[in-house]
């Protein structure tokens, strides 16, 4: 069974090239127009979170990404969503930020989280929708494997220190 994916979009990017919109058209993600429409029990990928995502988070009933600009992110109030996690060090493979650490687009963030939580096939499937997508797994193969074997957030932070 695949983990349900959600996104909140601020609609700042061009919908013709938006990675989340492409997943939505493929029926792989549900997009919420308002944050309060996201399930409260979801695991929210939020780079502002002090806790790193780990395999221990695989118990989450769903996964949500904030698809917005970095400027918008600073102002976003996630309301009642309490389970928030930040991704560890990874390098972007998307055309806009290729090779830049921590500059993942929304699909890369979702795929990284899925991979770390043991949903490797689903991570592959969502990345396969993009010509550059599988390259993300290649570029980050070693850290993703290491992160996926960690027991908890503290181990993720320790592993991350070897890459960053």
From TrEMBL:
Reaction(s) the record says it catalyses: an N(1)-methylpseudouridine in rRNA + S-adenosyl-L-methionine = N(1)-methyl-N(3)-[(3S)-3-amino-3-carboxypropyl]pseudouridine in rRNA + S-methyl-5'-thioadenosine + H(+)
Keywords attached to this entry: Cytoplasm, Ribosome biogenesis, rRNA processing, S-adenosyl-L-methionine, Transferase
InterPro entries xrefs: Tsr3-like (IPR022968), Tsr3_C (IPR007177)
Keyword rRNA processing in record: yes
Binding residues for S-adenosyl-L-methionine: 19, 66, 87, 106
GO cellular component, one term: cytoplasm
UniProt entry tagged with the keyword Transmembrane: no
Pfam families linked: Ribo_biogen_C (PF04034)
Name of the protein in its database record: 16S rRNA aminocarboxypropyltransferase
Taxonomic lineage from the root: Archaea, Methanobacteriati, Methanobacteriota, Stenosarchaea group, Methanomicrobia
């Amino acid at each position: 069974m695949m983990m349900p994916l959600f996104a909140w979009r601020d609609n700042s990017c061009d919908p013709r090239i938006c990675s989340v919109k492409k997943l939505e058209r493929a029926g792989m993600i549900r997009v919420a127009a308002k944050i309060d429409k996201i399930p409260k029990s979801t695991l929210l990928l939020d780079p502002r979170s002090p806790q790193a995502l780990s395999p221990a988070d695989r118990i989450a009933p769903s996964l949500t990404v904030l698809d917005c600009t970095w400027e918008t992110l600073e102002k976003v109030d996630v309301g009642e969503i309490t389970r928030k996690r930040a991704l560890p060090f990874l390098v972007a493979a998307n055309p806009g930020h290729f090779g830049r650490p921590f500059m993942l687009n929304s699909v890369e963030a979702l795929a990284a989280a899925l991979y770390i939580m043991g949903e490797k096939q689903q991570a592959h499937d969502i990345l396969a929708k993009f010509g550059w997508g599988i390259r993300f797994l290649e570029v980050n193969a070693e850290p993703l494997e290491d992160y996926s074997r960690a027991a908890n957030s503290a181990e993720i932070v320790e592993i991350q220190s070897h890459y960053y």
